[in-house]
Specification:
Elements lengths: L15 E6 L8 H10 L25 E9 L8 H14 L6 E2 L2 E9 L7 H5 L5 E3 L5 E3 L9 H5 L6 E2 L6 E2 L5 H4 L6 H5 L5 E5 H17 L6 E3 L12 E5 L19 H25 L3
Parallel strand pairs: 1-11
Antiparallel strand pairs: 1-9, 2-4, 3-4, 5-6, 7-8, 10-11
């Protein structure tokens, strides 16, 4: 698949996106704050769940960036974990994986989640009003003034990203700071990230950078490290917001095999039409054949 948008003629731009390296995330939530400030999003504190220190819980109409906190209790080795701790310190010095994520018998996984801006976007396909559109950067944006609040896109999204505001029923989500992109500016969340966990740029360059980072982490012993949504051959054709995870997607609350819900619609309708035609032929034969 080409890494250049081809639907805007001379106004086309390179495909832009986010690469989120969760091994660098410190859970500071600077990205959440910057997103809210720039886009003037209402507060969305949901309180503590009792399972995490995270108080925004998930993505929604008023939370376009969400830093997930995953706390796991580790099994200590017979020596009290000294060998493991030494290995972690070496990993940190060699690759930049921060030791705050592993310590005191706990494993801390943190990841800043966002709309994935899918290459095959089911939300865009099911929108009846054209409120969702694909930009010249190949990202997906909602035009709130056109949204009629039908909610079709909410159920179509395989990641549960889209949501409706309670006061007006319209859908709101990350725009990948489309207004800033048009002015050649970096999205607010990426600019605010103090550790460069959220990296913004051309999609092709980001994927190359992510592959190199994954190789370094894997070689250093991060056995479960993996890229998520960086492959054009996955169920959504790849995403403009993809991640380097240190564990399985489910651990972060992400679906392991997301699929565009509209991907097989053409085949489904074609099969239905053939079945209907076949049934019609059988009924016709039964009716006219019985008159002889």
């Amino acid at each position: 698949m080409s890494l250049t948008v081809r639907t805007y003629g001379g106004d086309q731009k390179p495909r832009m996106g986010f690469f989120t390296d969760t091994s660098l995330c410190i859970g500071c939530k600077a990205c959440e704050v910057a997103c809210k400030q720039w886009n003037q999003i209402p507060e969305s504190i949901q309180g503590f769940t009792g399972h995490s220190y995270d108080n925004t819980v998930d993505l929604g109409a008023n939370t376009w960036r969400h830093v997930a906190f995953v706390e796991q209790r580790k099994e200590l080795t017979p020596d009290g974990g000294l060998v493991e701790q030494a290995a972690l310190e070496q990993l940190a010095s060699e690759t930049g994986v921060q030791t705050y994520q592993e310590g005191d018998g706990m494993r801390w996984l943190m990841a800043s989640d966002v709309c994935k801006h899918c290459t095959h976007a089911a939300c865009l396909d099911v929108c009846p009003t054209g409120a969702l559109f694909r930009t010249e950067f190949d990202t997906v944006v909602v035009q709130e003034d056109i949204c009629n609040g039908c909610g079709y896109c909410v159920t179509a999204c395989p990641f549960g990203v889209l949501d409706q505001r309670e006061d007006d029923g319209r859908v709101w989500k990350c725009t990948l700071c489309y207004d800033r992109l048009k002015d050649d500016k970096e999205p607010a969340c990426a600019q605010a990230c103090p550790t460069n966990s959220i990296q913004f740029g051309e999609l092709g360059d980001l994927r190359e950078r992510a592959e190199e980072r994954l190789e370094r982490l894997t070689a250093a012993g991060a056995e479960k490290a993996q890229l998520y949504l960086s492959d054009d051959d996955d169920g959504i054709g790849g995403a403009h917001a993809f991640f380097l995870l240190l564990d399985e997607p489910e651990v972060y609350g992400l679906p392991p095999d997301p699929v565009d819900a509209t991907r097989d619609l053409k085949t489904t309708w074609s099969s239905a039409a053939l079945a209907a035609a076949g049934l019609g032929a059988v009924l016709a034969a039964a009716v006219f054949g019985g008159r002889r």
